[in-house]
Amino acid sequence: MGHTITVKNPAxxxxxxxxxxxxxxxxKVAIKTGHDSFREWSKVNAHERSRLLTSWSRIVQEHKExxxxxxxxxxxxxxxxxxxxVDYATSYIDWYAEExxxxxxxTVPASSETKRIIVSKxxxxxxxxxxxxxxxxxxxxxxxxxxxAAGCPFIVxxxxxxxxxxxxxxxxxxxxxxxxxxxxxxNGPGSVVGNIFTSSEYIRKITFTGSTPVGKNLxxxxxxxxKHVTMELGGHAPLIVAEDADIDFAVKQTxxxxxxxxxxxxxxxxxxxxxxxxxxxxxxxxxxxxxxxxVGNGLDKDTQIGPIINEKGFDKIVAQxxxxxxKGAEVLAGNQYKVDKxxxxxxxxxxxxxxxxxxxxxxKEETFGPVAPITTFKTLEEAVEIANSTPYGLAAYFFTNNxxxxxxxxxxxxxxxxxxxDGAPSGAHIPFGGMKESxxxxxxxxxxxxxxLETKYLSIGNF
Length: 463
Ligand code: NAP
What we know:
alpha/beta, Aldehyde Dehydrogenase, Chain A, domain 1, globular, binds NADP nicotinamide-adenine-dinucleotide phosphate, 7-stranded mixed beta sheet, Aldehyde Dehydrogenase, Chain A, domain 2, 463 residues, 22 strands, 2 domains
């Protein structure tokens, strides 16, 4: 293991910054420091914790342009998307600043006249988070804000590709007055830091956003000390276009959900399932719109599609396209690339594939790239069967103006997040999370603070 992480701009391959990797000893000290801050932080009253979170959000907003530029430099996403992500990230802080004041217990009628029963909630203790590179700000605040609001100290390890956004966000939290031992970051490779986190007796909860295989390992490793876990894992979202759908609207929404962040989001539509009577109209329009999207450096103001995060991600996308084409898919747009392996940048032009079948890798594996594979269905039962034929269960979308079709699809799709005529169903106020191998637990909404709380019950006798 080297001593630094080299953060590179995926748009150009140029060095952005060298970041120190923390030693095992330093990480263990950070964990102990976080643990030691628990009693004091948990006693800070909820209104004060709320006030501190609100100050943090305000300071981040005051530095919105700076954070957005850091994000575009290390992640590659277009600046407009980075600015949007800063708002998305602070919306979680704002939401949980309010929820801090609404952590309620209850009284329970006793079975004897001599007893009183009180149920209360208390913070679970030190929380460790591991976050991915695709939403460097929002995936961090979606965890930090409810943890801090609940009264838990928080320590985060960001992805090696994108540590800078997290580091700045933590600095802003300290500037807001949240104690330095209550919110901390450490840097290093996931496998190393993950082991230190899961084997620590001081950490009571692991909250992770990333791939399903890594999530499974973290769940196993957390069992050793029976830690709480929240897992936001991979997805393979179906998007169903019914025969009666408003095709222009469905195309617009598909573009938004498919090509945001160059298709590198866990809720990206990954299997587009269109009724056979409207597939021609839908595919032609989607291909036409997709081929007009502007690909380039996220710092250029016209850019709509940035680079792929790294060579590994790029190779996976190209392999899926080649596999599909080899097995009979038709390229309606894209399948073009701009690559400089030596400099280290990799762009994939928005690609639309028709005649996609279930034996193609793209219908089974998460793509994480700007590729829209289209397949067809005849009956709603068939659409549901295709949609549910995956171990994932994060997001699903469907487009229909028929309430019976919509209700049927809602009832039968095994996914945690459903967008009905809505390609952007996320928000701080909703419970985000997946079924099946897409995860455990929810983030956001009133559900998002619960995983940071223990239930304690008190029975008072001898009245
Ligand atoms: P990843 O490889 O699982 O990495 C995510 C984080 O886990 C990084 O910080 C990484 O560290 C760390 N990590 C890697 N190996 C580890 C190990 N053995 N133990 C502990 N931590 C480890 O995922 P990715 O490819 O970067 O991110 C994309 C994935 O995230 C996709 O599957 C996507 O669907 C999922 N995702 C899910 C959601 C959601 O809300 N459900 C949101 C966004 C993304 P390094 O720095 O060393 O890489």
